[in-house]
Amino acid sequence: MVWLFSKNIKSTRTTKKLSGRLLGPFPIFKKVSTHAYHLKLPSQWKSIHPVFHIALLEPVKTSTIPNWCQEPPPSIIIEEEEEWEVSQILDSNLKRRKLWYSELVKDFHSLYPNKPGPNSSKA
């Protein structure tokens, strides 16, 4: 298993700075040459060529704690895009006279009536 540096991978984020530095981890499908490996990429990445130079790969480091392995949270596929399920919203804020959530959840304002809502008066 290896991590892939996101240097040459186009992201859907608004800025490169907000994207993760490493993608994966991905299993190695086969060794193409002394300097390149063919990775098994997810089906959503079919537009990306799966062979990468070793400078763009980093081996996954195993934990020094015995019997400990943290699995990534399960992903959800929506319209052929990978999404992550939100368990709850912890807070909402008014910034620059706009309401900001990390994610919108049904019945948030009925659970937290004192939080600013979309129809709150502007400060």
TrEMBL record:
Segments forming domain Tf2-1-like SH3-like: 1-60
Superkingdom field: Eukaryota
Query: What is the name of the protein in this document?
Result: Tf2-1-like SH3-like domain-containing protein
